[in-house]
Design brief:
Helix content: over 70%
Strand order of the largest sheet: 1-2
Structural class: mainly alpha
Number of strands: 2
Strand content: under 5%
Largest sheet: 2 strands, antiparallel
Shape: flat
Length: 143
C-alpha cells in the first residue's frame, strides 16, 4: 500500500494532472486509516498485556505520572575540565562570556609606528617605480 502511495505521489508531482492528484489523495487517506487502525490495535494489545502484568502496570503508571528520571543537560567542558552540576555550568558559561567580551589588548605604540613607516616606504617605492616606468615609456616612444 505504501509503495502504491509513493508511486502515485511521484506521478502526481511529475505530471501535475488533476486525476493523478485525486488518485494520490485517495491512497494517502487509505494509508492513514490503515495506520490509525494498526495503532489502535497495538495500543489495545499493550493495555491488555499491561493489565495482566503488575510490573508493566507500575512502569506505565510511572511514565504517565511523569515521575521517571528527568533528563539533564549534558556536561560542559570548562577550562579546568568537565563540569556536571548546574552551578558549575553557570560559572563556566559566565567565564566564557566574560572572556569573549573583553576588549582587545592595546597594541604597542612602537609596533604601530613601524607598521605605518613600512606601509609608507612601500607606497613610495611603488610611486617611484611608476614614475620610472612612465619616463622609460616616453623615452622609448621618442626614439
Amino acid at each position: 500500500m505504501l509503495a502504491l502511495k509513493r508511486e502515485a505521489r511521484r506521478d502526481w508531482q511529475r505530471l501535475r494532472a488533476a486525476q493523478e492528484q485525486i488518485k494520490y489523495n485517495i491512497l494517502k487517506a487509505m494509508v492513514k486509516r490503515m495506520v490509525n487502525h494498526i495503532r489502535g490495535t497495538n495500543w489495545n494489545k499493550f493495555v491488555m498485556d499491561t493489565a495482566t502484568n503488575l510490573q508493566k502496570t507500575w512502569n506505565l503508571t510511572k511514565i504517565l505520572k511523569g515521575s521517571t528520571k528527568k533528563t539533564s543537560t549534558p556536561a560542559i567542558h570548562g577550562q579546568q575540565g568537565m563540569v556536571y552540576t548546574s552551578v558549575d555550568k553557570a560559572k563556566v558559561i559566565a567565564q566564557t562570556l566574560d572572556d569573549q567580551f573583553k576588549p582587545s589588548q592595546i597594541q604597542e605604540v612602537i609596533f604601530n609606528r613601524d607598521v605605518i613607516r613600512t606601509r609608507q616606504q612601500h607606497q613610495s617605492r611603488n610611486t617611484n617605480s611608476k614614475l620610472l616606468l612612465k619616463l622609460f615609456d616616453r623615452t622609448r616612444h621618442q626614439d
